[in-house]
Specification:
Elements: H1 2-27, H2 32-36, H3 51-60, H4 67-79, E1 85-86, E2 91-92, H5 93-128, H6 133-147, H7 150-164, H8 175-181, H9 193-199, H10 203-240, H11 243-250, H12 255-267, H13 269-284, H14 287-292, H15 298-307, H16 311-339
Helix pairs in contact: 1-16, 5-6, 5-10, 5-13, 5-16, 6-10, 7-10, 9-10, 10-12, 10-13, 11-12, 13-16, 15-16
């Protein structure tokens, strides 16, 4: 296992270098002012620029040097997480991403269990009850979820839960809870309002934060259940016809043990990739869901940056998400080796 992990770790720097080089290459298509915005730390440097001022900034940040030299100079800045100034967020790109990541992390932590395990559970039930009424009902449920665009279902959820019932509002906190969180007496230990509310003894704030998470979690769960369910069902059906499963049943092993001890573990191997990528998608920000529910996470920030052509912020989020993706793939590879020991020999 150690050798397996070390091999994956050795590949990480190469992949990250490739990603940063691709992002740097994309920057070359921007005009000089847009490229400079990815280097400066204050908007004052780009206001009322004359031709002479622009030339001085180009010299200051080395944008007239050979491309390879520019790349390594820029890479040093990236390693320090120095990604320029965001006009959309009115703060450095680093601070804009870090200030909104806790919101996305909180949504991901509360959504990952119903999203992943709900889909796996439904897929196993569907496979075990193949072609029975329960299986047909679950498959119809999955087809509807797979066919619905996320923005349509999200709007329906928002309309029903908030517009009709008035129970689960959009946003991250109610106004009264925002006032409490922003007060000096409330300490932000983690940036996760549910956790911080509990740690501060303000259970009303924690419950309010949970109430605002219900809509996004329902939207993400139903839409992604459909995908995980279909993959789990197909994998489970394939495993249930294997010889060792037939042999276990012939020996009189109880059906529950056959399903949960022998079949499920092997059926989950292909599901790991899909589930892992979905978790990474949650951490990177779910653009449409966060936008619909006015949830101030990375996804909504990325959408706003794209709409207003905030290039430094777009590039910064791209690098941030690429880093999460590479690390996430490493975790998925390790999980493969845990679930299927044969992988370690490859």
């Amino acid at each position: 296992m150690t050798a397996y992990i070390l091999r994956r770790l050795l590949i990480l720097p190469v992949i990250l270098l490739g990603v940063t080089f691709l992002v740097f290459f994309m920057m070359q298509f921007l005009d000089p002012v847009q490229r400079l915005s990815a280097y400066i730390k204050s908007p004052a440097e780009l206001k009322s620029l004359s031709a002479d001022d622009l030339e001085k900034l180009v010299d200051k940040y080395g944008l007239n040097k050979p491309l390879l030299v520019q790349y390594f100079d820029w890479l040093k800045r990236v390693l320090r997480f120095d990604l320029g100034w965001s006009e959309v967020a009115h703060q450095p790109v680093r601070d804009a991403i870090l200030s909104r990541f806790p919101a996305t992390l909180e949504l991901a932590l509360f959504a990952v269990f119903p999203v992943v395990w709900g889909g796996i559970w439904l897929g196993i039930i569907s496979a075990v009850n193949r072609d029975k009424p329960l299986d047909q009902a679950i498959r119809i449920f999955a087809v509807i979820g797979w066919s619905l665009p996320s923005f349509v279902f999200g709007i329906l959820v928002l309309f029903l839960l908030y517009g009709v019932l008035g129970l689960f509002p959009p946003g991250r906190l109610s106004l009264w809870a925002q006032n409490i969180v922003s007060s000096p007496d409330f300490k932000l230990y983690t940036g996760l309002y549910v956790v911080d509310g509990i740690l501060n003894g303000r259970f009303d704030v924690a419950l309010d934060a949970l109430r605002h998470l219900v809509g996004p979690i329902i939207t993400l769960s139903y839409l992604w259940w459909a995908f995980i369910l279909r993959i789990t069902r197909s994998s489970m059906l394939e495993v249930l016809h294997k010889e060792y499963i037939v042999m276990a049943r012939a020996k009189g092993v109880p059906e529950k043990l056959v399903i949960h001890r022998h079949a499920k573990k092997n059926a989950l191997i292909p599901v790991l990739t899909v589930a892992g990528m979905m978790v990474l998608g949650l951490l990177g920000g779910v653009v449409i869901t966060e936008t619909i529910f006015d949830y101030p996470g990375i996804g909504r920030l990325a959408a706003t940056a794209a709409q207003q052509l905030d290039y430094p912020l777009i590039l910064g989020i791209t690098i941030f998400y690429a880093f999460l993706l590479v690390l996430g793939n490493l975790v998925i590879d390790v999980l493969y080796a845990v679930v299927d020991p044969r992988v370690r020999l490859e």
